[in-house]
Amino acid sequence: DQQVKQNSPSLSVQEGRISILNCDYTNSMFDYFLWYKKYPAEGPTFLISISSIKDKNEDGRFTVFLNKSAKHLSLHIVPSQPGDSAVYFCAASPRTQTGANNLFFGTGTRLTVIP
Amino acid sequence: EAGVTQFPSHSVIEKGQTVTLRCDPISGHDNLYWYRRVMGKEIKFLLHFVKESKQDESGMPNNRFLAERTGGTYSTLKVQPAELEDSGVYFCASSPSTGSGELFFGEGSRLTVL
C-alpha cells in the first residue's frame, strides 16, 4: 500500500515557465517532507524539504508548499530551465527527529523542460 | 569529501546465483540505509543501520536478503539465491546522527537477474 503518491508520471514545460509537481500522502503521522531530484544513472539528490509546522519553504527557484489538511504537497520551479529535466521524487518521513528517518517515496515524476 | 559509493554499478547474474552489493557511506555518518527501486516504481525502504546495529529491517523482502555492517563502516547486501523479481536498482544512503533529516544517496547498484 503506497503511502506517498505522485499521480503524474511525466510533465513537460517550456523553458522559463513554471513547473508544478504534485504529491499526495495518506499517513497522517508524516511530519517531514522532502523532494529529491534524480538524473539517469545517478542516485537521488536532495532538493528541498519542509517540516509539518510550515506551509511553505523557498530556496531560490524552488518552493515547496504543504497543505496538511489535504495531505498534499507541491514543488514549484520558476523559472524552469532545461537543466531541471530529471525525475523528481516526493518523500515523507514519520518523524522530525533528525538524522534517523526512514523515508517513504513516491514513484516519481519525469520533468522535461523544453528549450 | 567523498559521497556515498556503491559497488558494483551493474551486476548481471542468473537465477539461483548469489550477489553481494557493497556500500561505503559518507565518513562519519552513523546512519546507513538500503533502498530498492524496481521497474520504475517507488524507491522502497529495505533496512536501516545505526552504526553496526540494525535499527529497522522491516522492508527486507524475505530471508534471501542479508545485510551486514561490520564495524559500523561499510555495508554489504547479499542476495542468495537471487530470483527474477530481485532485479532492480539498489540504493544506499547515509546520514549523520544529527542533521536535517536529509539522506545522501549513492548512485545505485543495478541488479539484473536472468
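qc> The longest strand of chain A covers residues 86-93.
qc> done
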